[in-house]
Specification:
Strand content: under 5%
Helix content: over 70%
Distance between the termini: 46 Å
CATH class: Mainly Alpha
Radius of gyration: 21 Å
Number of strands: 0
Largest sheet: none
CATH topology: Four Helix Bundle (Hemerythrin (Met), subunit A)
Number of domains: 1
Number of helices: 4
Shape: elongated
Order of helices and strands: HHHH
CATH architecture: Up-down Bundle
Length: 153
């Protein structure tokens, strides 16, 4: 009888550990998604200011700095390899980690350039915005699952 109880206890512990791991992965994925969504939101606000000639041009610098900071956090946020469940990240990301880190840095550099241009009031703000878009798009094409393969939100 004690042997069966021990087996049940061990089985229960193994199931609990599996559930904790799944929650942990979901938490990491949710954090990553919020970080990327933050970038998208700040870029959308920059776009709104420019497209609609809103009186918030002085805030473009702040939005760009946030995108830069978020991009600098990307490496840490994606360091844990999660290839299944609630993730849109391609498994190849961790196989080509140096390229992923370089892509995040490229986005950070483009955002920094936008912040500097917007702050100085000189230079091509739209060109800098496009550079960030190109950096984001390039990274997404290489490291993000295509729409049909993403998990349903």
């Amino acid at each position: 009888m004690k042997k069966y109880q021990l087996i049940l206890i061990i089985s229960g512990l193994l199931i609990s550990v599996g559930n904790i791991q799944a929650q942990d992965n979901d938490s990491f994925s949710a954090y990553r998604q919020k970080l990327m969504k933050s970038n998208a939101n700040h870029m959308a606000m920059i776009g709104d200011v420019l497209k609609n000639n809103l009186p918030f041009k002085n805030q473009i610098t702040s939005h760009a700095k946030i995108v830069e900071m978020n991009s600098l956090m990307t490496e840490d946020a994606f360091a844990k390899k999660i290839t299944s469940g609630r993730t849109d990240t391609k498994p190849q990301t961790w196989d080509d980690w140096a390229a992923f880190v370089a892509a995040a840095k490229k986005t950070a550099d483009a955002a920094k350039a936008l912040a500097e241009t917007a702050e100085s009031g000189t230079g091509n703000v739209m060109g800098n915005v496009k550079a960030i878009g190109q950096a984001c798009g390039s990274c997404h094409r290489q490291f993000r699952k295509p729409k049909g393969q993403r998990f349903a939100r």
